[in-house]
TrEMBL record, chain B:
GO MF term set: acyltransferase activity
Domain of life: Bacteria
InterPro entries: P_lipid/glycerol_AcTrfase_prd (IPR016676), Plipid/glycerol_acylTrfase (IPR002123)
Regions crossing the membrane: none
CDD domains xrefs: LPLAT_MGAT-like
Alphabetical UniProt keywords: Acyltransferase, Transferase
Species this protein is from: Microbispora catharanthi
Protein name, as recorded: Glycerol acyltransferase
Lineage, highest ranks first: Bacteria, Bacillati, Actinomycetota, Actinomycetes, Streptosporangiales
One Pfam short name: Acyltransferase
GO cellular component terms attached to this protein's record: membrane
PANTHER family reported for this sequence: MONOACYLGLYCEROL_DIACYLGLYCEROL O-ACYLTRANSFERASE, TRANSMEMBRANE PROTEIN 68
Domain Phospholipid/glycerol acyltransferase residue range list: 81-198
């Protein structure tokens, strides 16, 4: 974690991390706080971080936590008073169900308010600031959408074929628009936008990880989407690297390789139930109601058409590749959930023994 | 036919005993049920393609159409190339047979660029991806060619495959020449390819445009057997096939930026088209009658 790009100015002193009560936000804050070159890490979020039952007592380590909504004037005060020079903006939430926007009542309007208006306010504060020189924003590869009419592999320059009309992906697209506007108005500030593939890992709690934890896996009949994962450790590493040194631009972040949904399902060892697309939508509606799996419309599209991104730009910029491939990230997640079911393999073994007469 | 026998002996040398072959089969099954196999970023599953999908097509290629591949030396053995072929036959059986030819006779996977329609349809879309194909768009074409793959394209598109039987072996208008631009950008040779035989498998003597529109299809064919014989009408007629790879047309003498010069792209597209029409006429003569005379 302590590898630094040579020639990096020793000016990084105070880092502000938004969304610090989330899993990734907390880990990034802890990692940055452990860095001797960083004097102060201020974590902000609308909800307090989870109770300190975690590993080293204090969940956030050296990080100072400030409970503040992104759209409140207090944030401007925090940035100004603390002479913040690096802002790591991780507070984009993917679903209205998540508890982190519950402070305002929840629902889709609150989610949009949090994601889009919150980012606008944060960037407005950064624009005013005389000390901020680096802004890192977490986005998602969902901005490319999932479509049968799109190229198989998205590079950072690919324009999405159809702009997403729903939830998270649309919020992320709008957030990126504001970030571009900010970068134009403050060219002296280094702006990094990181488009993360689906996070995967032992401690990731997302619609997709709850999906893969179900005893049976419904799939869309006749479709087998390509999926790409980034391991939580790699996500934290990329965020820390871009927070510590200047890496301007937009970058895709994903583990090497892709897995098909069918391949993921086989690795879990759980049975799949292919169903026609309308039935799949109906079932995911039920699962949403029962709070089992919270699939949003863009995730439903992902489950039909899939998505893969090119990560060469990130590798070239950082001189670093994610430690976990897509498959390794998924396997690590599976191990944490008690490992794959072994029935299919056992069946083949039994059949092999039976046929060869042993 | 020589190649066919060559492959057989090669295979039997590989798995000499029945036991070994059985063990191999179970290892294959084990990999498949546990998901421990690799696919590429386009969704290409080489193992499934080789062992299942192509295996299902081989009898059609060898015994039904008695297909022969010619000019194999014209396709580079280890570099990227763009195979440009004529499209015909009402259903894209020629694409499948070209895939068998390139895989079995040249030992390389063929990465076809397919129509949007294919990727919208359930089953077909992901099977196409698993056998190595992708959407016909410049991004995917460039990416595959940069990786040194053999990419195949049918520039006539639906105009070629859906043309009436009376226009057989007449090349239709090529699209916008996007394939030429991709080849120039990647600096790979264009290999013109003539496929003779596919025109006769489903002779399209009529069309039901109203119903086709209703179903969202580019055309709904009437052939001598379809729809009269129902599903049996889907049986392709056993015409004799020849697939010939012509002399490569070099593009590496142009700079990659020249792909943006529309005049150059038009000229090169025309050149490719004329070459293919000549090649197609000669190959049709060489084949002779599509069906052997019926001896009673």
């Amino acid at each position: 974690m302590n590898t630094h790009t040579p020639g990096e100015a020793s000016m990084t002193r105070t880092v502000l991390v938004t969304g610090v009560s989330g899993h990734i936000g907390a880990r990034v804050a802890i990692a940055l706080a452990a860095d001797p070159e960083i004097d102060r890490v201020i974590g902000v979020d609308t909800a307090p971080p989870p109770s300190p039952a975690g590993e080293d007592g204090a969940v956030l380590g050296r990080t100072e936590f400030v409970r503040v909504a992104l759209r409140s004037p207090d944030l401007i005060k925090v940035i100004r008073d603390a002479d913040v020079d690096t802002v790591v903006h991780l507070s984009l939430v993917s679903g209205p169900g998540g508890g982190r926007v519950s402070g305002t009542g929840g629902g889709r309007p609150a989610m949009k308010e949090h994601n889009v208006i919150g980012t606008m306010q944060l960037l407005a504060a950064c624009q005013r600031s005389a000390t901020v020189r680096r802004v890192v924003v977490r986005s998602t590869t969902a901005v490319y959408g999932s479509s049968p009419h799109a190229p198989a592999v998205f590079t950072e320059d690919t324009e999405p074929v159809e702009v997403s009309h729903s939830g998270y992906a649309r919020d992320a697209t709008e957030v990126e628009t504001y970030v571009r506007g900010f970068a134009r108005r403050r060219p002296d500030v280094t702006t990094t936008t990181l488009r993360f593939a689906t996070l995967m890992g032992p401690r990731v709690d997302s619609p997709l990880t709850s999906y893969f934890s179900q005893p049976v896996l419904p799939t869309v009949l006749g479709f087998d989407p390509r999926l790409q994962f980034v391991h939580e450790d790699d996500a934290v590493e990329v965020l820390c690297r871009t927070a510590r040194a200047d890496h301007p631009g937009v970058f895709n972040v994903a583990g090497d390789g892709v897995l098909l949904l069918s391949q993921c399902a086989r690795r879990t060892g759980r049975p799949v139930i292919p169903m026609p697309s309308p039935a799949f939508r109906f079932v995911s509606g039920l699962a949403r109601g029962a709070r089992l799996v919270d699939f949003s419309p863009e995730q439903l599209a992902l489950m039909s058409h899939g998505r893969a991104v090119d990560t060469t730009r990130l590798a070239a910029e950082l001189g670093w590749r994610p430690k976990y491939s897509t498959a390794a990230a998924f396997d690590d997640f599976l191990r944490s959930r008690g490992g794959p079911g072994d029935l299919p393999r056992a069946l083949v073994d039994w059949l092999a023994d039976f046929v060869t007469g042993r | 036919m020589d190649d066919f026998q060559g492959r057989r002996t090669h295979e039997s040398a590989e798995g000499s005993t029945a036991d070994e072959r059985l063990a191999e089969l179970f290892a294959f099954l084990r990999r498949r049920v546990t998901g421990e196999y690799e696919i590429d970023e386009f969704g290409f599953d080489p193992e499934l393609n080789e062992k299942v999908l192509l295996e299902a097509l081989r009898p059609l290629y060898r015994h039904w159409f008695r297909a022969e591949a010619l000019g194999l030396g014209n396709v580079p053995a280890d570099r990227g190339a763009l195979i440009v072929a004529n499209h015909s036959g009402t259903l894209p059986v020629d694409a499948l047979m070209l895939q068998v030819a390139v895989h079995d006779e040249l030992g390389r996977p063929l990465r076809l660029l397919g129509a949007h329609l294919v990727y919208q349809l359930p089953v077909l879309g992901h099977l196409a991806r698993k056998s190595g194909h992708t959407l016909a768009c410049p991004e995917d074409a460039d990416r595959l060619l940069r990786k040194g793959e053999v990419v195949g394209v049918f520039p006539e598109g639906f105009k070629g495959i859906g043309k009436p039987f009376s226009e057989r072996y007449r090349l239709q208008r090529f699209g916008r020449g996007g394939f030429v631009a991709s080849a120039i950008r990647a600096g790979v040779p264009i290999v013109p390819c003539a496929i003779v035989g596919a025109e006769e498998i489903y002779p399209k003597i009529g069309d039901i445009p109203a119903l086709a529109r209703l179903l969202g299809l580019p055309y709904l064919p009437i052939t001598p057997l379809f729809p009269w014989l129902g599903p049996l009408g889907l049986l392709p007629l056993p015409s004799k096939w020849l697939i010939e790879f012509g002399e490569p047309i070099r593009t590496d003498e142009y700079a990659p930026e020249e792909a943006d010069d529309p005049m150059l792209v038009f000229d090169l597209t025309d050149h490719v088209r004329e070459t293919m029409q000549r090649q197609l006429d000669a190959l049709r003569l060489r084949r002779g009658p599509a069906f052997p005379p019926i001896v009673l």
